[in-house]
Amino acid sequence: MECEGVDKKANSNVNVLRLFGVDIPIPIPIPYDVSLQSDHSSTLTDERRRVSTSPKKRSKRKCPSSSPESSTKKPKKEKKPRPSREVIDRIGADGLTLPSEITQKIESLQNEQSRQDKKPRLLLQKILSPTDVDDSQSRLLFPRGQIKDHDFVNERERKTLHEDGQEGRVPVTVLYFDEGGEERMLIEKKANLGRWPKPLKKPTLETIAVANTSSVKWNYSLQTVWVAIMKASKLNEGDKVQVWSFRHGDDDECLGLVVRKVDV
User: Among its keywords, does the record have Transcription regulation (predicted)?
Assistant: First the structure.
């Protein structure tokens, strides 16, 4: 039996294994060069670092058009200041919004001192509501929040109104225009100023029971001849009316009111 072994051939990349007289070539593995791997890995690392540190490309956003129309902002609406008490008094004193027929009539009712010190004042301006033109209620409501001059009644009148509740009445002189004829006529009538309870949001037995107590909030109201004034002046729901107040008589003890329709 022939001896088996491995025959290395010089300058050859293979070994020869002799087995049973047969030469079997066996490739010699190539030695692993560590330096080559380190160079390659360092190259990859440098490449990754260069990629990671490179500035990112930002997506370009389209800027809004800088046309004059888009850049122009709408101006804010200026809030008109509320008229001061001096302005209201000046309007009443100059009679800027009262027809001459009314101012002359007021002067004829006043004494000389009243003409100088107690000029007509704008009491309120409102839009007539459905209840204002309701014949069954027969009153023109003066909402407290819309009254511009809360001192239009004197102490005696205020005491009468507040102590007697809904039954309290103060006599007033009312001036208004009758628009029924070919020419309008200025009418003078006697009426009453009273108080009217503010409507209850959710009426209950308890709230109705205290309706005549001092805890209820009240509004002033023109009563007695309001329906006649409304029909003579041809007033309807949605019309705007002005109510002016003035004093007349001895010691200005009498209260007067002017009711007139104005353009909206």
Answer: yes
Pair 178, 263: CB distance under 8 Å:
no
- For tokens 């039954």, what's the residue? 167
pLDDT per position as a tens digit, 184-233? 999 999 999 998 877 655 555 555 555 455 456 788 999 989 999 999 99
Higher pLDDT, 12 or 113: 113
Higher-confidence position of 104 and 79: 104
Confidence (pTM): 0.58
Q: Secondary structure of the chain in the HEC alphabet?
A: CCCCEEEECCCCCEEEEEECCEEEEEECCCCCCHHHHHHHHHHHHHHHHHHHHCCCCCCCCCCCCCCHHHHCCCCCCCCCCCCCHHHHHHHHHHCCCCCHHHHHHHHHHCCHHHHHHCCCEEEEEEECCCCCCCCCCCEEEECHHHCCCCCCCCHHHHHHHHHCHHHCCEEEEEEEEECCCCCCEEEEEEEEEEEEECCCCCCCHHHHHCCCCCCCCEEEEEECCHHHHHHHCCCCCCCEEEEEEEEECHHHCEEEEEEEEECC
Contact 211, 198 (CB under 8 A): no
Residue pair 231/217 in contact by the 8 Å Cβ criterion: no
Cα-based torsion angle of the residue sequence 97, 233, 114, 153 in order, rounded to the nearest 10 degrees: -100
